[in-house]
Amino acid sequence: MGIRFVLMVNKQGQTRLAQYYEYLNIDERRALEGEIVRKCLARNEQQCSFVEHRNYKVVYRRYASLFFLVGVDKEENELAILEFIHLLVETMDRHFGNVCELDIMFHLEKAHFMLEEMVMNGCIVETSKANILSPIQLIDKAS
Amino acid sequence: MNPFSSGTRLRDMIRAIRACKTAAEERAVVRKECASIRAAISENDHDYSHRNLAKLMFIHMLGYPTHFGQMECLKLIASPGFPEKRIGYLGLMLLLDERQEVLMLVTNSIKQDLNHTNQYIVGLALCALGNIGSAEMARDLAPDVERLLQFRDPNIRKKAALCTIRIIKKVPDLAENFINPAAALLKEKHHGVLLTGVQLCIDLCKVSNEALEYLRKKSIVGLVKLLRDLTNSPYAPEYDVSGITDPFLHIRLLRLLRALGEGDADASDNMNDILAQVATKTESNKNSGNAILYECVAAIMSIEENGGLRVLAVNILGRFLSSRDNNIRYVALNMLMRAMALDSQAVQRHRATILECVKDPDASIRKRALELVYLLVNENNVKQLTKELVDYLEVSDPEFKGDLSAKICSIVEKFSPEKIWYIDQMLKVLSEAGNYVKDDVWHALIVVITNAPNLHGYTVRSLHRAVQTASEQETLVRVAVWCIGEYGDLLINNAGMLDVEDPVNVTEADAVDVVETAIGRHSSDLTTRAMCLSALLKLSSRFPSCSKRINDIIHHHKQSLVLELQQRAIEFNSIIEKHENIRSALVERMPVLDEATFSGRRAGSMPNAVSTSQGAPPKIPNGVAKPVSAPLVDLLDFSSDDIPISGPSGGDFLQDLLGVDVSPTPLPGTNQTNKSGNDMLLDLLSIGTPPAQSSSSMLDILSSSQDNQSSGDLLGKLSTPSPSVQTSSPVASSSMMDLLDGFGASQSVPVAVTNGPTYPSVVAFESSSLKVTFNFSKEPGSPQTTLIEAQFTNKSPNMYSNFVFQAAVPKFLQLHLDPASSNTLPANGDGSITQRFRVSNSQHGKKSLVMRVRINYKANDKDVLEEGQISNFPRDL
């Protein structure tokens, strides 16, 4: 299992989406998010996209006002995770059309559905945007 | 419509929360929403359960408790419609708090959904099982998942594959059922199925050797072909990432090959060609290509020996290392760590570049590089590398200094070719980052210094120089103060000059200045100041001309509000003023510290050491003088017992010092007196809090000295301590009175205790990790029964949980334990547990109390057991 959590956080450090693939209670999660976000937000553009925190390695990438942070274990290929983040953003872009913070906030469940189609139990399930989005489009059509 | 089911839409709630200006406002909004959702749940109002769950997910994300929504998820999952199930499963995965009951309730729904005719619903159930399934669920549902691995729709097969990973991780015994279906997945065309199938095989290999062998035999050829086809495949728009087809699948395939090739020469042989092809052909100008190269290098490093490929891999890392992209440099450093184990020569070639990375502005890169440099150091390059690191220490960021100095110290200790170099480097580190180093570092330095007699002069002069410019570095000041105290005379007369030194001109007054400045600095902490006082005492004997001035400084500290300093000042002051004849003998140079003992102790105090109580049996003070412990050890705050004391006649000194007339009646206890005299001497010289075991031997004396009004003149300056105070004050002041009163009283111990129903508290049990104090009281009218209040204090930096105290008494006693105040004990003495119990003594007046104790607790997730016997109860309880 490579991916331990996926976070989306805005520039002010507010969590906009959080998905954990291991169990942490609310206090642990809040503390972890606070520490990691503080660390990542303090870094500048030139610095590398990896931060080590506790026993996690956090791979993060910034898109406009939104930070995507993925916590992985030490064995994971960091560059691949970076590529995964980009894929996630592209997928959301394709669905929402130039995704922004508000899209994720107001369609939190859809964002989760997409993530669910991409990652399961910490492993990547699917990398084709069409395959990821087709079940979500089906729901949209149905409702 | 139910008035409680709030009509606010999800959108409106989010808006309301966003509009909040303070955290308190946000909490209020969330509380209101939660209340209405709870109301809706308890009213069984289904109209809005979908919306309510979406709200709960948002509230959960903000970090508020949402456990009450779990049952709602179950209801939604059980409902027939897809949208309800969809949100229900999502809610379950997000809100679940690992409560087994909830999981058990959901097992049945998942089982039904796994057999649903709608494939999307099957997908949902698989996803939920894969994300949150427990071991029981894995056992129950494994057959269904196994069947779904062959489902017609690839989107189900891929989810079933990942679900299987969860199952075999929870129940490894089930792995063998899945070997064949997993191997079949590797022959698929669909990328999603391949990706998850490969991942499943990787995990199968981890849990089952059988799977590993099977895949080695049957699948390597197929996997190699798969990877080759993928590498050569034409443009595939759906999976293309900047010109490379499905880098994710590339990486997973490489990882599986690595797992199969590790430790198997034949398998490794079969994949050499394809690895070489990937390593040479992959484009390295894009991140996706580099990700594949990185994984390929990792595979080459792990599989069995192939020199040619290794060179290729190290070259790729070299290229990565010189990249301008920080991400690439980071992964290169990461991988070079692994390469060190295989081919350290090849990595050494990049030493200069790696050293540059230690100075990178990026903290992540610095950290990696520093770890790597640490591995690179060997006997040949230690001087050069250390110089680079020490130079960098001067300019590095403050937050990096801690890590960096710890690593330098570790390198210097490990590889130091000679003592003078060691001392030089450590002084540099302490001058630059003395506030960041740990205590054991400067302790170790002092041990090394005492063991290098020919360098004493050199060291003290270097320290004197260093402390002039870096006086804000606490640990440097401590070492300097200690050395000036010990070797002050060598500082003044330039004794033991080395060729490399220039003579310095330091007067006695200058040396005292250093100590005086250190003791007066506001930033100095208790340890430093206490060390300063000890150093001053020593200097007063080494520099007779400054004795008056030193006495003034010490005198000044007699008013210190800190007990430890006040006590020292008073004791030292009386030594200087009244006991001129023995002073020089008292402050003789410290004996050489035993390096082996120190390093052994250090190793023993490593945080991962198993129970400390097994290594060193707890010392139980029992009123009898304990064996002599070395003053120096106390001085450095080591608590080891086996260093021989230097002065064989410590007791005599003491008797001189205190002007004790030899015991009026030569009792068998005389010998004992001498020994406790030694203990006194130790206290006199010790830094830190006086160790309880030596002082508690004075406790009895304390109570007697109250009757006995022969207190010395200094006693008048202290208020008479009340014996029932339980903190360190009776301990400290008892040794004080002991100093003044001498031992005449110690013979008359039994006399003392008759004067009332109060008894002094005792330290009943003490080990390196725990301290137990007993306070006694009697119920009026029942002299046989004693009420004891035990107080437990944690001396270690780890919190103790599951703390249980048990006690056993001989037959003539009866024991009744009350419940303890808590079963967790905060670290570092930051709080305590109290437990009361009652002991009835049927032989009251004839026999005194004894007790065996056993203490269980969990520290650092390890069970610790400490045991001991308590026999130092006051006599007539």
What does this 3D model show about the protein?
Chain A has 143 residues and is of the alpha+beta class. Helices cover 46% and strands 26% of the residues of chain A. The longest helix of chain A has 19 residues. The mean pLDDT of chain A is 90. In chain B, strands 3-4-5-8-7 form a five-stranded antiparallel sheet. A three-stranded antiparallel sheet of chain B has the order 6-9-10. Chain B has a two-stranded antiparallel ribbon with strand order 1-2. In chain B, helix 13 packs antiparallel against helix 14, helix 20 packs across helix 21 and helix 24 runs antiparallel to helix 25. The longest helix of chain B has 20 residues. The N terminus of chain B is likely disordered. At the A-B interface, strand 2, helix 1, strand 3, helix 2 and helix 4 of A face helix 1, helix 3, helix 5, helix 7 and helix 9 of B.
What is shown here, in short?
With 143 residues, chain A is α+β, with helices and mostly antiparallel strands.
